[in-house]
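Batch manifest, entry 17 of 40.
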Amino acid sequence: MEIAALVSGGVDSSVVVHQLVEAGYKPVIFYIRIGMEDREGYMDCPSEEDIEITSFIAKKYGCRFEMVSLHEEYWEKVVKYTIETVKRGLTPNPDIMCNKYIKFGCFEEKWGKDFAQIATGHYATTTNINGKIWLSTAKDKQKDQTDFLAQINGTQISKLMFPIGNMLKSEVRAIAELQNLPSAMRRDSQGICFLGKINYNDFIERYLGKCTGEIVELETGKTIGMHNGYWFHTIGQRKGLGLSGGPWFVVGKDATHNIIYVSNGYDPDTQYGKTVEMQGFHFITEDIWGEFNDAKEIAFKIRHTPEFSKGRFYRTGDKYRIESDEKIQGIAPGQFAVVYDPVCRLCLGSGVIL
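Output type: structure tokens
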């Protein structure tokens, strides 16, 4: 059985190759170039160091190495989505879109179809229940990445392998050190891949510019500061507001009038909510509930954190709603609400927050 391994040069995907070879496989290693590309020329996200490390891993384990480009597809499916979502005053999630359309979309269509399975360094697992494959959470709850995979489909998940999904990050690091892998001590990547070393706000400014607007205290209606554009801010944001007497949190945005609304302190109700409205809910493996009138007990996340919230899942026509058991902070329209079974094992799907 031939396996494709997506390797980025980081410690996680490097150890994936080791685990596969130890298990008796000889994967074909793919490095996907997905740097940002536009009419002014692309800014390549991956450094030459990433490519050198991936090439070293391939030689060390005697694997075929292919470097492929998805620049154009990445611009169309991920970068444009990010810019357009921010411009509408919403919060994007490029990582979810990259997994859906690039790593397990375009790659599968162009190269992955020739392989029985595709292995990646994501912290996730799969579970076979009555012959159907489900996306399930990783052993390392701090590193679990199932929320970033919550828009892939059942066909994609059925071909995926997560060789480090049942390992702790510390165990992955230990293997990399023992095997003298050059990525053993590399820091985990942070932020959005296509930006590389570019600051997020600098990227947004490049495409949307600056436009001075008011920072208004929601409870009083008083203008307490100024900002350079609502597109630089997101619901739940605390840092980067330049206000004294904090903590201040962004609790609302008016894209039409370029106003951001804030609340002071940790306790105001305006920071919190218990209802998460969604549209276009996507079930990964199958719609396990079909048409239903009663509430379904679930666990869920509205951002990338180790913690789960508990609540109930409702459907009315093509609209979906989560009622949280406890108040949650920073419900950001445009982000994805990711739904799990009540015991936080199976990732069922996700929907865009309204």
